[in-house]
Amino acid sequence: MSLAHGRPYLAIPGPSVIPDAVLQAMHRPAPNIYEGALPEMVDTMIPDLRYVAQTSGHVGIYICNGHGMWEAALSNVVAEGEKVLVPATGRFGLGWADTAQAMGIEVELLEHDRQSAIDPERVHAALAADKAHRIKAVLAVHVDTSTSVRSDMTALRAVLDDLGHPALLMADCIASLACDEFRMDDWGVDVMISASQKGLMVPPGLGFVFFNDKAAEVRRAMPRVTRYWDWTQRANPEMFYQYFNGTAPTHHLYGLRVSLDMIKAEGMEAIWARHAALAGAIWVACDVWGSAGPLTLNIKDPGLRSHAVTALRLGAPHGKRLREWTAEQTGVTLGLGIGMSEPDDPNGTGFFRLGHMGHVSAHMILGLLGVLETGFAALDIPHAKGGVTAAAQVLAQASARG
Amino acid sequence: MSLAHGRPYLAIPGPSVIPDAVLQAMHRPAPNIYEGALPEMVDTMIPDLRYVAQTSGHVGIYICNGHGMWEAALSNVVAEGEKVLVPATGRFGLGWADTAQAMGIEVELLEHDRQSAIDPERVHAALAADKAHRIKAVLAVHVDTSTSVRSDMTALRAVLDDLGHPALLMADCIASLACDEFRMDDWGVDVMISASQKGLMVPPGLGFVFFNDKAAEVRRAMPRVTRYWDWTQRANPEMFYQYFNGTAPTHHLYGLRVSLDMIKAEGMEAIWARHAALAGAIWVACDVWGSAGPLTLNIKDPGLRSHAVTALRLGAPHGKRLREWTAEQTGVTLGLGIGMSEPDDPNGTGFFRLGHMGHVSAHMILGLLGVLETGFAALDIPHAKGGVTAAAQVLAQASARG
Amino acid sequence: MSLAHGRPYLAIPGPSVIPDAVLQAMHRPAPNIYEGALPEMVDTMIPDLRYVAQTSGHVGIYICNGHGMWEAALSNVVAEGEKVLVPATGRFGLGWADTAQAMGIEVELLEHDRQSAIDPERVHAALAADKAHRIKAVLAVHVDTSTSVRSDMTALRAVLDDLGHPALLMADCIASLACDEFRMDDWGVDVMISASQKGLMVPPGLGFVFFNDKAAEVRRAMPRVTRYWDWTQRANPEMFYQYFNGTAPTHHLYGLRVSLDMIKAEGMEAIWARHAALAGAIWVACDVWGSAGPLTLNIKDPGLRSHAVTALRLGAPHGKRLREWTAEQTGVTLGLGIGMSEPDDPNGTGFFRLGHMGHVSAHMILGLLGVLETGFAALDIPHAKGGVTAAAQVLAQASARG
Amino acid sequence: MSLAHGRPYLAIPGPSVIPDAVLQAMHRPAPNIYEGALPEMVDTMIPDLRYVAQTSGHVGIYICNGHGMWEAALSNVVAEGEKVLVPATGRFGLGWADTAQAMGIEVELLEHDRQSAIDPERVHAALAADKAHRIKAVLAVHVDTSTSVRSDMTALRAVLDDLGHPALLMADCIASLACDEFRMDDWGVDVMISASQKGLMVPPGLGFVFFNDKAAEVRRAMPRVTRYWDWTQRANPEMFYQYFNGTAPTHHLYGLRVSLDMIKAEGMEAIWARHAALAGAIWVACDVWGSAGPLTLNIKDPGLRSHAVTALRLGAPHGKRLREWTAEQTGVTLGLGIGMSEPDDPNGTGFFRLGHMGHVSAHMILGLLGVLETGFAALDIPHAKGGVTAAAQVLAQASARG
């Protein structure tokens, strides 16, 4: 007997759960890509994407994944031989740094431990030491899904402003956009990248870059940008195919149109509040369970925790056992720990992650918590009972406030 | 802010949640209905339907809903002016009786209260009084979704056998098939009807009749059966269109094929055990909540409770408020109470029902329970906390056993 | 090598080609059937269905197929022992008569040969002979898909009016509705039935009855009508479930909503004109081919030919060879001949039919004709070349007129 | 009235018609991208992709469009400052050259007129003049969809071999793969690129590179390749995410799996033969029509014509009128002419193209031809009648041979 025979819940930190309406919209014949309804539809998306990013700046859409967007954004503003500063808080910050290095960019890496947000003081020190202003950009991951830490973009902006340093502030919001609060213009982010498969609730395959006029000027001064990565025509196309430097990603666009409609209908403030409330419920449940057992939240300070993903430590072999049990017995797929390890757990099997981004409701999250509490009991993993009860109280209060 | 923006969970007692694979299979062009793959596919379904009903008897498939199956089954074995005995435990038993009466059939109604299963002693008395054997059939609803009571078919069989009464035992398993244990041949049920949209996990639109040789003989002795309801050719077609007395319900059949594959892969015993475990989790949670508040399970004796639907009383106006709150705030649609009322609640707004039939997992049910506990808290409905915690323990034990 | 690897075209006379948008609309989770969007949506369909039938009368929707609608309509207006007149022009007229007889209704059958429309003079004679007005209804198939003949409903109305005979005029428009012109009120049809899978472009599984006040009065005078077939509540429901006497056919309704939207957007006059033009193109092509070979149109008089289906004779063994060849080599499925035979071809393998109903364009029909001309050549079936060229001229003119 | 109300046929040269089964397979929830069924499925695709390209070489899959693949392939084998030879036969050859230049690569362009295939003698001359072997690669578009010319890869191989020139032979088979015959290994192509939305019948969004050991060596000698374009890990991943340098394009992969299954079931030889036969039917029809009117095939020599796309000239304003008429009146979307013009038609409105690639049957192509002949008649465009008749004869013969 298994209790997993129902609609599965994929609780990994991306790809996230795709709304039925998005999948439905993608199920249609190939359209004309030269004229007609599709080009008109794409034009309508640009202001909506700006709304999601809270910017009046420029938007470029790419056919690629998040790793591709690292390369796309850098290609437009940092040339071979130039330098970037990367305060990395986890695997994804390191990945962006690696992408830069492979492009021939010089990287100054400020590696943080796996439990901390970007330290503005370290960034301040590095930029202050850069008297020649060789650092052309600061690459900051807003939410690193490996550690689930969220870094403060406004603090980085303040550092740059304080020093009068001209470097661009570039943010990776792949895991956070349309989940955690993000205000590109208000926060002074110059370039932001994201992708389709998390808060935007569309299958993987689309990437997005948002940039302001300052970044556009930097682009114009670049010696050379390759055609596929160049954002110039993508952000200001004269003909439809220039949006995508070639054939449009037709079916993803249909899905994205529906997803943007859903986002507009809910509203960014409401979306951020929903994610905050659901994350809060998860945290309180984990705190209860962990009060009499090994479960710990990776990020101690709630103010630094992502509202879209939660990294946890249960210790080997519990983590792996729990993931296998929930998949086989309950229909819930938990996320692997990645980029985490311990001396006696070199592969990090004792870590796991919960994705709670995008199309997630109270029902789905309470079900997830119920499954965890059941799993702890079924597998004799020490814990204090009552995590779901505590979560229910938190959500009841949030709902009453909302 | 609302916490409802995710995949919705329809927790009404039918139509039940449709598996993604079933919907996917139904999304295809119209097929040839005269020859080829479709006729061959339908042939393969008959043994699988027998397996679901645990019978080696005959199977007829109809394009209609459950109410239609009441009429279909009666049409084949009870003629105008003949008599049936209907021990009714709720709205659906009464509905079957009403259908019979509208067909010109004489109905002897044994009405039960809304908290009881069929009383074999009352049936015994009625049949014993029928010295002339005018009662041609006993119409018994296995699970009445209005009250969520489950009646004991074997007890009714024993009554008939004990008296040597020749009446057919006819069971309505619309709400129970592929949820609650049901063994047609072992239990001596002569005619059983069901429909597609509950345990079979397919959209509404198909009905099923299963009947044994004894019932087939009764059919052959009938003066006249209308073409649409006649099960003779449906159960033994010479040409494909006779399966359905005309055009086949093409797309439902594609869905049903997938649903039967899923059922076979899981196995009837495992399906029954899963429903039993999930129902047990719901009951224990309700018991906890009700220990300090108004919530009560409609059926007191757990042995008489359906494993597919649970009828509850919260009292007016709590029931309606809770249903509205879960829909708006959490993405869960609870079932209305139907056929229930109280002196100060003539419309039964204080009652509600939980559907937990078919494609339901631990995640979905624990999420449902979490939502209820959250709702009680948000709406200040008196209750003892900890229902989900108790449910998690029950499921952990069930999982360990299974 | 096969030339069949593309989107298949099912050129059988129903089920017809389902629009992608209809299938897309049906691909969604189960809805609440008690309140909310679904009940509201169904209310909007009633005036649209009236528009399709060109009536201000009553509408009932059933979960069943076309054969079921024969029984449904009769159940409401003709009691056991009463009499109907059935001027049958093919297999479907005979089927309706058979359904009536199985209900205990007396049938006076006016069988026509397989190449003729209903002869109003024979109907006149039969009704004139019915001095006692025992004939309660005349059952007329508008288009019999077996022969592809279309009968004139206004001529039958004139006969009834001329004689002052009170019998109801009942029309089976299963194959013709939303294809051939039909004006229920203007033409004086009292009861009309149809189904979802032809001109309405939705998978099989829904039936429709339209009836006027006169028929409603006849219903009220009936001694008894069974619950499932009774149109009273279906046409005038107080609660949503009464539309369907039980659970609603949820997914078909979503498809039907889209189909009705498409029909309204195109407009009934334009739909009729499109079917007329496409049928005309088929006929002229067949005339060309048949001018030097065995191909003949079953109905000689173009004024009596359906615009939705065309029955043809090619002679054994050509018919069967052609059908097999088009399926294997071109992706086109032709309709079998049904209810047709010849002395040396008792199974009618020399006959075949073309469905051209509902979601059919010039491209699809010209492709069908091209496939036929290719098949004649590939199989060495004698024919004059140039059928498609002639069809193209006809469509060019129709398009210029339209 | 319009005759366009049916399943549309998109006769543009890509994106091509997507099989229903491919769309169906893409309609499913997000999967786990770290372990389980998806990674296993992707492993099975590699040998199938090799089969499609007729190679035993290496395969890399990218999330991008065809233009992205130009950049991807070059990135691996040609560094900034190195040189390529581009014999361009149309817009896409020019586009590849432009992409190379934007990467800082020196381009020697051999521009051909718009009615010719690559001239091996010109290539021979250019390579012979390259005594220093500075030309690192020859970039050859197999089928240029703007002119519909197909160039001979074996002739280019022979030139390279004849001269003992070490340059890589790189082929763009975006429009031809799985349509026109292509044998990578037998023909001596070193690097080949393609994309998902033409012969592979999947929505746009995936690109493919195939390369042999010689090209792999060239890659290893490159000073630097950016992470996203580097084919090393993609073609030989140690972990699943390395296939795609990050998140997998989940839903496209489900579609591709089905598409590859269809291709394997039909077989490459049969696919090539089908495309050849259908193209031949189109040509003969156009020859007939053009024998008494302005229609001309852009490529005179049938041996140089693509089997996947046909470029035609009708002259302004006929071309544009025809395209608009078929879209509005018949449901067929014709391809625009691109990259073509005449002195009195600077925008090339007199040109159009027919896509006949991938999921195309005799029915679809004959319908397309029937629509064209109807359009010529409806718009009074001079032409000789009988094009479809001639096409039918050609297909009849092809079918008999096949």
From TrEMBL, chains A, B, C, D:
Its cofactor is pyridoxal 5'-phosphate. The keyword Metal-binding does not apply. Residues 77-280 form the Aminotransferase class V domain. It holds the Pfam family Aminotran_5. Belongs to the class-V pyridoxal-phosphate-dependent aminotransferase family. PANTHER family: ALANINE--GLYOXYLATE AMINOTRANSFERASE, AMINOTRANSFERASE CLASS V. This is Aminotransferase class V-fold PLP-dependent enzyme. It comes from Tropicibacter oceani. The lineage of its organism: Bacteria, Pseudomonadati, Pseudomonadota, Alphaproteobacteria, Rhodobacterales.
